[in-house]
Design brief:
This protein is mainly beta and 240 residues long. It is 7% helix and 44% strand. The protein is built from 1 helix and 19 strands.
């Protein structure tokens, strides 16, 4: 009898342990996507701004120029934009990895260039725009520098002169010391920096133009030597 009791106890113990209890899985915590980091400051190095760039490896009328810049924090790739300032033609080189790139350019011309840094997200940072002249073979006429504004100061608000005019002033240089002439283009619409308003020719780096109060004006200067024309940036100002 005592053995029977022991067997029954063992049976119930084993049967109780063998029941399959339903265990609910623990809820999973969603994994947040990695944050998109801000891109740091982007600084250019070579070719230097507003300087003559000596030719690199030369092939007939072209030279291979090395463009350099400092790495921007959290940037993974770069885009180089180069503009021929004589014909205003722009060329882009995308998906550049590293902080330098060699590019073949036509000698004896002025160029502008800048870099845009990006990363895996949608963040981008653009550098300043630098300009340089690519030296030729010594026989080629070198381009003048683009005009730099003196007055009106870009982004300023000014008054008309008593005569209802504004005196525009700028400065430009020619590496060959050629005599320069100028053409001012002025408009009330920027139109992506393609001005189509009035044009005024002058042989001096200043010119007085009659304008209307209460308007925002956009203007640029084309600097010309004996055979080459260089367009400046587009500047703007407001008249009270």
């Amino acid at each position: 009898m005592r053995n029977l009791v022991y067997l029954l106890l063992i049976f119930f113990f084993i049967n109780g342990c063998s029941k399959n209890d339903t265990v609910n899985p623990l809820p999973t915590t969603p994994v947040a996507p990695a944050p998109i980091l801000e891109i740091g400051e982007l600084n250019l190095e070579l070719p230097e701004n507003n300087k003559n760039c000596e030719t690199g490896s030369v092939n007939l009328d072209k030279a291979e120029i090395e463009f350099k810049w400092k790495a921007a924090n959290n940037a993974t790739k770069y885009e180089i934009q180069i503009t021929d300032l004589q014909d205003n033609k722009t060329t882009k080189f995308s998906d550049v990895v590293g902080t330098s790139k060699k590019i073949s350019l036509i000698r004896g011309k002025s160029y502008s260039w800048n870099i845009t840094a990006s990363n895996a997200g949608s963040k981008t940072v653009a550098s300043a725009i630098w300009k340089f002249y690519l030296s030729g073979d010594g026989k080629t006429n070198r381009a003048p520098t683009p005009a730099k504004v003196i007055y009106p100061v870009p982004g300023s608000t000014i008054n008309l002169n008593p005569a209802g005019t504004v005196k525009f002033e700028w400065t430009a240089e020619d590496p060959d010391k050629d005599l320069l002439s100028y053409s001012i283009r002025i408009d009330t619409l920027s139109r992506d920096q393609k001005l189509s308003g009035n044009s005024f020719d002058t042989k001096n780096p200043f010119h007085e133009i009659k304008l209307v109060q209460g308007k925002i004006y956009y203007w640029s200067v084309i600097t010309k030597d004996e055979s080459i024309s260089i367009k400046s940036d587009v500047f703007s100002f407001k008249l009270k």
